[in-house]
Every structure is written in structure tokens, then in C-alpha cells.
Specification:
This is Peptidylprolyl isomerase. Helix content is about 45%, strand content about 15%. The protein has about 500 residues and is an alpha+beta fold. Among the domains are: about 170 residues, Orthogonal Bundle (Triger factor/SurA peptide-binding fold); about 90 residues, Roll (Chitinase A, domain 3), CATH 3.10.50.40. The strands form 4 sheets. Strands 5, 10, 11, 12 and 13 form a 5-stranded antiparallel beta sheet that branches. It has a 4-stranded antiparallel beta sheet with strand order 7-6-9-8, sandwiched between helices. Helix 1 packs across helix 2, helix 2 crosses helix 5 and helix 6 packs across helix 15. The radius of gyration is 26 Å and the shape is globular.
């Protein structure tokens, strides 16, 4: 039988603060040399949150996802918004999209931009400048001395990729100009507000909650059996690389001390024996590679760094599972969904579109359908402008799909007091009714002073740049092979 055990590391504080660096373009980077396995709510996370074109997106502090998550989280906290589970799910989705965009931008940047080693070193050193502008050489040298080579290489890679994506984004999008006529058009477009009500069925949630037929799981396992190779492992998780190196040397001389050392020195004393687990249950892809790909028959592996910890690993056996029940069922279901999510989601949206159409036909009071099966009714707290972003109801409930381009395109193409047909959005299907529209007074624009007009031009230019970037992301993400894990 397969083991369903999974390690639960203790929450760990960062060993350095936020690194901020201003380069060719504004670049703000989180330099935290530990991986986020546990987020601010303390819930467990998988090592990767997904991939794009085969490149894994790690759930780590210095990864594109980790940096985006913390930046978005800090932004909403600065606004005084209480971040509940629903809000965190929204932030996770935004951070994942931004991470995908960053990786795609990196692909463009690598062909055209070079980031020198000196630039990276200066970026790292800038972290050790105090509030008075004084550089602390001793603190920097201590950081370098106490960091392993693997840590330093990882930080360098994260810094380089962040700078690459920020620089190419600046070149692609930030040179956009806006003239007087454009300003009038953008002013009208961005200051026009609309009020709606919406019926919605969350097809993505239905797909995630649906039972997967045993035959489908068994076939997926059979077709992809080599992906589920398993290792019977035990590991000792430590915070110090030096301690891990010394322990490895001790165990190399006397492996019988492994269990005693795990109980006395390990952070995971209650579950250091993992049993047979797949690579998906391991802390990182690099970790899995060292066990399955790079292992030259060694049972005791040299310390592996992953997720901010050092692991001394004992490999007891490696096997290919014979049947699908030998694999952790949560892992198997997650991998099945990852591989088939686009097909399953489209099929579910088509199915639920018929359900919503039948329910909403000839119904004037849309709110009356709230709670009818999967149907939910939403009305924004106030009228909103084009591409305003995520919308809330009066009680703070997030309106699903309300941050997507598709949502805004449909809303702003409706005529007042008309009801849309059933429309497919990113994650579900909807019927939208346009209640009212508020248009800006264009005469006001001509009476504004130069400073105010300049400020509005900058704001409108920023909005246009943002829209162009969203269009670029939509186009390139649609062409990319994107997989997102269900981390909840």
C-alpha cells in the first residue's frame, strides 16, 4: 500500500529582510532566502503551484509566484482590507497569473537583455543599507559566509529573472504615449460607470468537487505510470546547513544512528518516516531529481536544500507502483485534473450554460434565482468603470470572474436595461443585466487646470499601459501550456 504521509514543516521566519533595488526600470524584489511552505494562514502548500511551457512555478518566496503573492497581499493590507480565505484565493489567482506572465517575459528578455554579475552583487548588497543610508559591510559578509552555495545560486537566479522580466516589460509597455484626442476617449471610457446584476454558476468549482470515475483514474495511471515512480524514504529536516553536513558525515560512518538522530535533532520527529511517496509529494522538483534521477545507488544522500530547510535523506527502496491504488489518491486525482482541466472545464461550462439558460428564461427578477442549484446572484456594491478590477458585493463577497477581460467586455457591450444571453467567462457561466450607466461630463475636462490635466493624462496612460499588458498576457498565455495545481 502507498503511504499518504506528507511532511509538515514548522513555520520559519525569513533570514533577511526585503531587498529593494532600482535598476534600468523600477524593480522591487523580495529577497527572502527561505521557501514559503506555510503561508500567512499557516495552511500547507505543495512545492509547486503549477507550470508554464514545462517550467515549474514554485511556491517559494523568491519565485515569481512568491514575490507576486507578497506584493499583492501587502497592497491590499495597505488599503486596510481584511484578507479572508476568499480574498486569499483571489490573491493566489492573481499571483499565479503574474508568475506565468513573468516567466513568459523572461523568455523574451533572455534573447535581448544581459544582466551583469556586478549588477546582481550590487542588488544583494543594497539590502544591507540601513535607514540612514549606511552600508553594513559586516552584515553582508556574514550573510555570504553563512549562506550555502546552493542558496546563493538560487537567489542570484531569482534576482536575475526578476530584473529581466521587469526590464523587458518596461521596454514593451511603458513607452506608450497618449495624445489629446486619446485622452478624451480614454477619459470617457474609463470614467463611464455601469451598474449590473449577475447570475453565475462556478463551473471550475464544480469540476474540482466532482467525483472522478475510477475507470478514468485507472486509465490515467496506466497511461502515465512512469510519472508515479515511488521512493520509500525517511528524512531528517534541519534548519542549519552546517548541522546537516556534520550529521551526514556521522551517519555515513554509522547509519544505525539514523533513527536516533531523527528523533533528537530533526524538526519533523513525528513523521520522519514517509514510506513510499511520489515526486509530487516531495518538497521540490530538485529534491525529487536527487532521489530518482541523480541517485547513483546511494541510500544515504548528501544534504538537500529545499523550502528553507536541509534534508538528510535515507532512500530505502525505489519502485514502480503496480496499480493505481498504490498511489496516494489525492495526488493521483490532482494530477488527473491538471492534465484534463481545460477539457473538463469547457465541458462543464457547456453543461451549466444550458442549466442557467433554462432557469433564467423569461425571469425578470434575477435575485429570485439565487440558491437555485448552483446558481448564485451577485450585485456590485456600487457602479464600476471599465477594467476597474475585482468587484465586491455590499457585504464584501468577491464577485467571481469580475477581474477578467471577458467580464468587462461583455458588461460594457450591453445596452441599458437589457439582459445578456448566457455567456462563458473564464471559470463559469453567467447572465448579466445592465441596470444603469453613468457617463462623465466631457465639458469638465476642458475646464481643468494644466496640473490636473497632466495628472489625468498620467493616470489614463497608466491604465492604457495596463490594458496593453493584459492583452499581451492574454495572447501569450493562451498560446502557452499552463497548468495550475489546486493548492487548497
Amino acid at each position: 500500500m502507498s503511504s499518504s504521509k506528507k511532511f509538515v514543516p514548522k513555520k520559519k521566519s525569513p533570514v533577511v529582510k526585503t531587498l529593494q533595488w532600482l535598476g534600468v526600470s523600477a524593480v522591487s524584489i523580495l529577497l527572502i532566502v527561505y521557501f514559503l511552505v506555510v503561508d500567512t494562514r499557516g495552511s500547507q502548500r505543495t512545492p509547486t503551484i503549477g507550470s508554464v511551457n514545462g517550467t515549474p512555478i514554485y511556491y517559494t518566496s523568491t519565485s515569481p509566484y512568491g514575490r507576486a503573492f507578497k506584493q499583492i497581499e501587502a497592497y491590499y493590507q495597505s488599503l486596510g482590507i481584511q484578507i479572508n480565505n476568499e480574498m486569499y484565493k483571489y490573491i493566489e489567482d492573481l499571483a499565479f497569473r503574474r508568475a506565468v506572465s513573468t516567466i513568459l517575459l523572461n523568455d523574451v528578455a533572455r534573447k535581448n537583455i544581459n544582466v551583469s554579475d556586478n549588477f546582481i552583487v550590487d542588488a544583494m548588497k543594497s539590502e544591507f543599507i540601513d535607514t540612514n543610508g549606511v552600508y553594513n559591510e559586516m552584515a553582508y559578509e556574514s550573510f555570504i559566509k553563512n549562506s550555502t552555495q546552493a542558496e546563493k545560486l538560487r537567489i542570484e537566479k531569482d534576482l536575475r529573472e526578476s530584473i529581466l522580466s521587469q526590464t523587458v516589460a518596461s521596454e514593451l509597455f511603458s513607452s506608450i504615449k497618449i495624445n489629446a484626442l486619446d485622452m478624451q476617449r480614454e477619459y470617457k471610457k474609463n470614467l463611464t460607470k455601469r451598474d449590473i446584476e449577475m447570475l453565475y454558476i462556478d463551473a471550475a468549482a464544480i469540476v474540482q468537487s466532482n467525483e472522478i470515475a475510477v475507470n478514468d483514474l485507472e486509465k490515467y495511471f496506466t497511461d502515465n505510470k512512469t510519472n508515479f515512480v515511488q521512493a520509500d524514504v525517511s528524512w531528517i529536516m534541519l534548519e542549519s546547513g552546517g548541522v546537516a553536513d556534520n550529521l551526514y558525515k556521522t551517519l555515513k560512518d554509522d547509519i544505525t544512528l539514523f533513527e536516533k538522530s531523527a528523533l533528537e535533532k530533526g524538526l519533523n520527529t513525528n513523521n520522519y518516516k514517509l514510506g513510499y511517496i511520489t515526486k509530487m509529494q516531495m518538497p521540490s522538483d530538485d529534491f525529487a531529481n536527487k532521489i530518482f534521477s541523480d541517485n547513483k545507488g546511494e541510500k544515504l544522500l548528501q544534504p538537500i536544500y529545499a523550502n528553507g530547510y536541509y534534508y538528510v535523506v535515507l532512500v530505502n527502496d525505489i519502485r514502480m507502483p503496480e496499480k493505481y491504488t498504490d498511489v496516494n489518491q489525492d495526488v493521483l486525482k490532482r494530477e488527473y485534473l491538471n492534465a484534463n482541466i481545460n477539457t473538463l472545464l469547457e465541458a462543464e461550462k457547456t453543461k451549466q450554460a444550458e442549466v442557467l439558460k433554462a432557469a433564467a428564461t423569461n425571469v425578470n427578477n434575477l435575485q429570485r434565482l439565487n440558491g437555485n442549484g448552483y446558481i448564485r446572484y451577485y450585485k456590485p456594491a456600487s457602479p464600476f468603470s471599465y477594467n476597474q478590477g475585482r468587484l465586491n458585493t455590499a457585504d464584501g463577497t468577491i464577485i467571481p470572474d469580475s477581474s477578467t477581460e471577458s467580464f468587462y467586455n461583455h458588461v460594457f457591450s450591453l445596452q441599458t436595461n437589457t439582459v445578456s444571453d448566457v455567456i462563458k467567462l473564464d471559470n463559469g457561466v453567467a447572465v448579466i443585466k445592465l441596470i444603469s450607466e453613468e457617463k462623465p461630463n466631457m465639458a469638465t475636462l476642458a475646464t481643468l487646470n494644466a496640473a490636473t490635466r497632466s495628472r489625468i493624462r498620467r493616470e489614463l496612460s497608466s491604465q492604457r499601459i495596463n490594458n496593453i499588458q493584459i492583452e499581451w498576457e492574454n495572447e501569450h498565455i493562451a498560446k502557452a501550456r499552463v497548468k495550475k495545481h489546486n493548492i487548497r
